[in-house]
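RECORD TYPE: inverse folding
INPUT: structure tokens
STRUCTURE:
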């Protein structure tokens, strides 16, 4: 396929957290607000005067110093973020909006808070006088009471804090403008992502992963022109005459902000056509619907709780719904199987991955490849062997079924 016009530029934006567009927005006088989890609504961090940055630690392979503070049994993702913070990689942040969802990232975010104890008075991880860190409580249930509690948390710990600290406009009009911008990003990402549903997709999983990540780590108003051009470009992009893949897969699992992992999967013959993982698009890029006369903060609270498929929701009906969701996505995107990848020491996804491995095959007839990996891929040889064997097993299944 013809190379996408902006792909190299998108790839370069992912090399550092403080990328070119982040620096431009800071030069425009906007505040950079970091976050790590889908449960922190990015739309509220993109109000006029500020912009959201979902934190990553690209190319971090040895979080040795962070391990001293967080232990070797904390997931590599949280330790990598801590390592990058200790290196000064997040000094551009004006605030970190955390969520009490994942224990490991909670510990990372607690370390970021300015210390006021004599014993650690010199530990200033984020070298920014204006920096502060807030954490919100996220309900474990998905009902009206939970929506109200979540709304109140967002108002007090996010909106009020941004207004008091930085004078950010948190009026309903400003929030509706942010929702409009968020929905345009979502519409464009969905438009681009729908080309993965074609019999011979005109975009690779790697390319889509790169583009989706850029929408999470770059100021929306600056990345939008590139998204519009890419969506227009996709309308005339022709696929290769010969398919470069042997099967299609849904990639599910925990934090995955490493496009090279997707590239590794695809180099083994499996085209990734759906990204059902943290940092993926199928949940995070759904349109936010605000009913006429509805409090926009309540609409946002409802949206993010009801669209999340995070395994921290443990009721049986929620667990079954998540399996059904993956099966539905496999059908919608015409996938032949599912790869479920969890980060080592990820408590929620370690359980979820094991259950997925059994249920998706038993109840839905989907071939499943289940792996545990580090945050940054360092065992490509072993993973390549696993993926190649999985692709071959899917091909054998097709032969047996006469496909």
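DESIGNED SEQUENCE:
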């Amino acid at each position: 396929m013809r190379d996408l016009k902006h792909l190299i530029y998108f790839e370069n934006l992912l090399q550092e957290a403080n990328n070119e567009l982040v620096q431009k927005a800071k030069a425009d006088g906007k505040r950079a607000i970091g976050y790590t989890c889908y449960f922190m609504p990015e739309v509220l961090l993109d109000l006029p005067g500020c912009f959201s940055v979902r934190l990553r630690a690209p190319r971090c392979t040895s979080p040795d110093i962070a391990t001293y503070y967080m232990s070797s049994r904390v997931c590599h993702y949280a330790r990598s973020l801590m390592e990058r913070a200790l290196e000064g990689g997040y000094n551009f942040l004006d605030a970190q909006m955390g969520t009490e969802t994942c224990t490991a990232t909670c510990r990372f975010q607690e370390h970021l808070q300015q210390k006021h104890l004599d014993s650690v008075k010199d530990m200033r991880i984020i070298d920014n006088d204006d920096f502060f860190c807030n954490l919100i409580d996220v309900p474990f249930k998905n009902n009206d009471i939970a929506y109200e509690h979540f709304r109140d948390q967002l108002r007090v710990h996010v909106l009020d804090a941004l207004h008091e600290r930085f004078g950010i406009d948190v009026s309903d009009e400003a929030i509706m403008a942010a929702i409009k911008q968020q929905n345009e990003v979502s519409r464009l990402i969905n438009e681009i992502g729908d080309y993965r549903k074609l019999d011979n997709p005109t975009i690779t999983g790697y390319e889509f992963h790169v583009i989706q990540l850029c929408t999470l780590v770059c100021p929306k108003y600056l990345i939008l022109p590139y998204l519009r051009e890419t969506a227009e470009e996709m309308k005339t992009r022709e696929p290769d005459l010969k398919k470069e893949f042997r099967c299609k897969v849904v990639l599910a699992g925990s934090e995955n902000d490493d496009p090279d992992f997707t590239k590794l999967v695809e180099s083994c013959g499996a085209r990734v056509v759906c990204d059902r993982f943290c940092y993926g698009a199928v949940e995070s890029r759904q349109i936010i619907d605000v009913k006429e006369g509805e409090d926009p903060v309540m609409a946002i609270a409802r949206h993010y709780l009801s669209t999340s498929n995070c395994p921290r929701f443990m009721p049986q009906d929620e667990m079954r719904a998540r399996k059904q969701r993956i099966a539905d996505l496999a059908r919608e995107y015409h996938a032949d199987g599912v790869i479920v990848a969890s980060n080592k020491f990820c408590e929620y996804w370690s359980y979820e991955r094991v259950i997925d491995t059994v249920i998706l095959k038993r109840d839905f007839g989907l071939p499943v490849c289940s792996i545990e990996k580090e945050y940054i891929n360092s065992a490509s040889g072993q993973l390549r062997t696993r993926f190649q064997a999985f692709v071959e097993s899917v091909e054998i299944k097709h032969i047996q079924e006469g496909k």
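NOTES: The first helix runs from residue 7 to 13.
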